[in-house]
Amino acid sequence: MKESVLTMSGVTKVFSTEEMETHALRGIDLTIYRGDFVSICGPSGCGKSTLLSILGLLDMPSSGQYQIEGEEVSQLTLAQSAYIRNEKVGFIFQSFNLIDELTVYDNVALPLRYRKEPMSEKQIKQAVEACLAKVDMSHRASHKPNQLSGGQQQRIAIARALVGKPSMLLVDEPTGNLDSINGDAVMAMLQQLNAEGTTLCMVTHDPRYADMATRQLHLLDGKIIDSEEHSDPKHAFEIPLAQ
């Protein structure tokens, strides 16, 4: 029997002003199982970013239930959300979100320095070095992000997302700021991580990359209108990232 990483039931999100209410999500029911690679696609304004924010505990639903590994997380405080997010969720963003003032090593180490259970410097060093090796960026550990290409920065962002061994990776348009060669290579890396057991949930506008997922969800007007299973997902080109 498959083990669920997250389960949503009847999740809604309403943004209210004095003039109007905007229903961004309307009754989302979703289960993601360990080892899944799920893509979420749909037109602009359909609720993709709102759903990803709630999945990553960056925002709370207006109603409904949301569980991560069996723990109800839909009504947490900001501090509680931050702890669970740091322990269980890894983020990969379109804009990389690296800190230019920090070295590559310190960017990757950053999530570990905010763990609820403190880690020793030796433990942090081992974890960071292992993740940099996984994305073939060990030789750039002492560089600053602005000394790297876009493809290299995205690899560092992937290492940072992996370093805390999260239950799932949430991936927001990971190729949006990359050329096609680096985009294909980043997607090949994500697909390889999934093959090794990493659970992925990715928002993308690119149908080529959506086809690489084992499950595709289609959103429209805040609702999941279609779900497709891919037993033989498309593979990315095996092109190395620009050095």
UniProtKB/TrEMBL annotation:
Q: Where is the ABC transporter domain?
A: 6-242
MF GO annotations: ATP binding; ATP hydrolysis activity; transmembrane transporter activity
Nucleotide-binding among the record's keywords? yes
Domain of life of the organism encoding this protein: Bacteria
Gene3D superfamilies found in the cross-reference section: P-loop containing nucleotide triphosphate hydrolases
The cross-references to CDD domains, in alphabetical order and at most eight, read:
ABC_MJ0796_LolCDE_FtsE
**Keyword ATP-binding listed:** yes
Q: List the GO terms this entry assigns under cellular component, sorted alphabetically.
A: plasma membrane; transmembrane transporter complex
> Which keywords, in A-to-Z order, does the entry hold?
ATP-binding, Nucleotide-binding, Transport
Q: Please list which residues make up the signal peptide.
A: none
Q: Family assignment? A: Belongs to the ABC transporter superfamily. Macrolide exporter (TC 3.A.1.122) family.
Q: What is this protein called?
A: ABC transporter
Source species: Pseudoalteromonas luteoviolacea DSM 6061
Q: What lineage is on file?
A: Bacteria, Pseudomonadati, Pseudomonadota, Gammaproteobacteria, Alteromonadales
